[in-house]
Design brief:
2 copies of one chain form a homodimer. Chain A is α/β, with parallel strands linked by helices. Chain A folds into 2 domains: 149 residues, Rossmann fold (3-Layer(aba) Sandwich); 144 residues, Dihydrodipicolinate Reductase, domain 2 (2-Layer Sandwich), CATH 3.30.360.10. Chain A contains 11 helices and 14 strands.
Amino acid sequence: MIDADNVYLSENKVSNRDKLLTLSTNLKVAIVGATGAVGKTLLELFDERNFDYGQIWLIASSRSAGQIIHHRGVNHQVYDLETFDFRGVDLVFSSAGTATSKNWGRRIAAQGPVVIDNTNAFRMEPDVGLIVPQVNSNQVLHKLKSRIIANPNCTTIPMVRALQPVHQEYSLNKLVISTYQAASGGGIAGLEQFTSGSQLVLDNPEAIPEAGRFQAPLPFNLIPRIDALLDSGFTLEEQKIAQESRKIMGLPKLNVTATAVRVPVMNCHSQAIYFECDSRLDYSRLTTILDDTGGIILYRGIGEAEGYPTPRGVSGSDHVHVGRVRIDPDNDRAGWMWVVSDNLRVGAALNAIQIAEDLIQSESSVLCASAY
Amino acid sequence: MIDADNVYLSENKVSNRDKLLTLSTNLKVAIVGATGAVGKTLLELFDERNFDYGQIWLIASSRSAGQIIHHRGVNHQVYDLETFDFRGVDLVFSSAGTATSKNWGRRIAAQGPVVIDNTNAFRMEPDVGLIVPQVNSNQVLHKLKSRIIANPNCTTIPMVRALQPVHQEYSLNKLVISTYQAASGGGIAGLEQFTSGSQLVLDNPEAIPEAGRFQAPLPFNLIPRIDALLDSGFTLEEQKIAQESRKIMGLPKLNVTATAVRVPVMNCHSQAIYFECDSRLDYSRLTTILDDTGGIILYRGIGEAEGYPTPRGVSGSDHVHVGRVRIDPDNDRAGWMWVVSDNLRVGAALNAIQIAEDLIQSESSVLCASAY
């Protein structure tokens, strides 16, 4: 069913290249949270992907305002979110935390820009699209009346990218997921606390580093709690994984349950995914469809390099890395996979840019009032 | 059904204290693998538990033979396994690796001692008991004609200890487990490689430490492969978890499936356990029965100390630490728990000593031909 007010992107109707270039070279872009881990990764990805813009503003909280960030040969002053005027901006990438987005997101969108929001502020709002371009790009413009598109959680994105081809072939009915999430999910400050705390413990094994951005000291430890603890006994992170994957895959009744754990790794989130399907799995077919899915690197060897992905091995990569694919010997409708991806890239900045690229390429682009 | 040749320990028939003391002060004990991580932990636990013996021999491979180990005021020379005569020894704790046990275990037992073997050599042998005293102590003497008792895998032991009370109340039918296993599982050498490799990476983030005892470099990394990779696509570690838990709990048809991951933590194995039962779970009842189980510490608070166990928090403890207990909102017959325990103690040396204590306390002790 297509609502009357929806405009769908068709993958078969890519706009012509000239129009795309015109649009993007005139595009007026802002990054809210530009001094954070995801903001910095966005700027790196702008260069790597030749993401063109006509003008850019880097914005942060008043604490970071006034800093200078060098990008594409220009020294950009960081503006204060409190006083910035978003009128005339086409596209805002926002990743300054859920509280900031809740406070500012709709106000910014009301001034004109489309906001691609990387926080938990709007993901489950009925009028906001929750988009992973490889999975539900046809919904990019769905409900865009809010002018906000939500970027899913850093764990949800690679998970649905790896599971969508499995679902299309075998019809998923249940997911049991355990995550292994890196320190960089706690931002630049979290990563620095983790690194200095690790040195502290190596110097003195009895030392207790500060918890800092995390719920407990992370160095050489595991923290089985990410984000708030809910009345259900699940954490908000675990609830996000369940709710978001259902919304993105369009499977409101999919049984998804997770345990989310912070691990003493610098970058890249990993997850052990157990999946049950309606139909019987065939190993050869299962690995073939994963191997044929764009953006996925499949590991099926035995040795260290080709046997399975590891977080240190894939940091900086823009792919979803899938290994340890196997079928449960007790239940041929169930299997496992081990998925690793760069949480700052695949799980955040890259997905946001890919949403933006879809918007720019859409024939009926809702962006760029200013560019026309 | 009790086989004619079985002698069962009855928990209601504890031997009288005098006999116990006489037995243990005359007990002739040997530790094979005395210079390893589990061997050293055994000696610590002998002291902490006042485990009495009349005489002790410390034994290792020829590489470590000749070393001196100080214990209870005595300097013990380490003997060479190749040339040691086990006649007259009552009880052998063996943890010198699966290959060594396969080569020596039955030969040692044939010389008279009961062997409590901590490796994978004999666990699934039909004539060998696989014992977790808190779960199946009534089988300690079952099939002891082999004179070998196997100590289960370091992950299996805390898992079945935490799940047995759940099974007794709700009848388990399915387990989906993801493990987070510490470096000390790779022995003293593995732990040292991990620690020095971690310093290498802190000094130079691009450094690639040696894999050493593990399948890949562990510092600040995750290795989703422990032990050999089988044709099924599962690792031997994952197969052990499934097979051993079925044998210990006496549930040959229980659906158990696991992903086992080595994590950059020094000591204590953790696991996220998803369990499905035949009957509906009640949170209050579930936590009460766990809380009432001896040897389990249950966490049900919210804060850092009381909210959940962490590996750094419980290292050195002789308890099974259980937290994050919750019921799946989509399926009230299913739930999760997060289990952490000291893999060298609870997962190895402590379980072996508890088996020995059961043997010593048995009225019809099969130990100590020499003590009578």
